[in-house]
Amino acid sequence: MNESIWRGSERKPSGTLAETCPVFQPRNLLKFREIKRPIILPLLRPGRPPAKEVAQRLFEAAKKGITARGWERFTGLKIRKLRVSGCEPTLGKEHLLQLLERIEGSGYQFYLETNGILLGADRDYVRKLSGFSKFIYVRVSFKAATPEGFTLRTGALGEYYDLPFKALKHLLDEGIYARAAAMTDPKVMPREERRILPRRLEEIDPSAEYSKTLEKERVDAYDTTIKRLKASADLEFAKQLEKILTSQ
Question: Which of 104, 119, 200, 247 ranks highest by number of CB atoms within 10 Å?
């Protein structure tokens, strides 16, 4: 991820991310003002694990099965589906495509979770993903149904709120199995917007009957999220947080 996507960045876009999708421009994406350096995502940082290694880790984890404490009742359950999540997997375009090449033919299904921004802006990206349509399932997570709601919850320009909708349509048109999920938690999305969203989704995919089947996401108050929100309004705290994050 380059620094151009962060609010407050004074540098010019230096990578393909800003060039691919104009929503990723200075001051347009996250409420993280005055922080000059980005948080580097693990799969995007220089020296990130190559796709071959990531695929191998996924295979090993699947073979080992569920071992987490408190989940003992699922021990021995055969794992048939793989997923990478956290941050936005589509940001590392070539890395993701290489990973899918490694997984293809393994017998596993692959779940791709995305906010849909890049897939809505880049139809060619979706066409490349369609080459793996036999074993991938794409879950597009919607944050808003209106430009105002999109800006309020993401900090991005409202004019780009329809990119996730375009992403869902592109995916279906290219023959990829895709479904929508949405952050419809009443704590963050008002009733009228929750009413609009399923209707818009059904215009794209009537057979999905989203008014009945839409997967609803809730908002949990993670400590890291609270800190980021505080940093968006408190410059001194933002500077302290930047020092902590960049020293890790």
Answer: 119
